[in-house]
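Our consortium's second objective concerns turning raw sequence data into structural hypotheses that experimental partners can test. To show how far this objective has progressed, the report includes one record in full. It was chosen at random from the queue rather than selected for favorable results. The single chain below, 199 residues long, was entered without modification.
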Amino acid sequence: MYKIEETIVSEYLEQNGFLVRPLRKSRSQTKKSLDEGLDLYVRNMVFREGGRDPHFLLFSSELRYLESAIICVRGWYGDKAALASMNGGADVLKHLETNVSKRVKKWFDYDPSVSFGTKSPPKKILVAPVFPTQEPYRTQCTDLLKSKGVDGILSFKSMTLELIDRVDTKQIYEKSELLQFLRILKTFDLVKDSQMDLL
């Protein structure tokens, strides 16, 4: 169930110059396992010291400021709440308050004596399938997650759209089943570049 989400996140980060390492070798598909362990450790192989910290909402333009991170991919996917039923920022905020905020600490729990080989400890990044765009909900959700120790959000939608935009239909992606699949979808006009939707 979660393999495709991890694959999309891994591919997106690799395309942006990160080394990606799974932090859990296997995961049983039990309800209890949805809350256990971490998903990915990532390290920016093109990181340059001396820059600012990345913004809380991480898009590809912000990733150059991120040295390393622990990425929680399964964030909200294991919940019973149907994301399609969330009509706006109020629904997302309520879901964060009642479900996600209670689990975040456990999702990012790791042995602090483990050294990741960087001067600063890795940032804690949560992958969010949806995130409010309108105020005041966007700021309230950001403040709530920051209060729980989350350093940033990666939008699952924006990562997927960027991968679709980067895929060239004239190129074969032998080493990536995901990119090859997206190429096939684009070739047959089943998905389109996000820029084309704006025209």
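The partners drew two points from this record. The chain has six helices and six strands. The beta strands are 18-22, 40-44, 57-58, 68-72, 123-128, 152-155. Both points have been shared with the crystallography group to help prioritize constructs.
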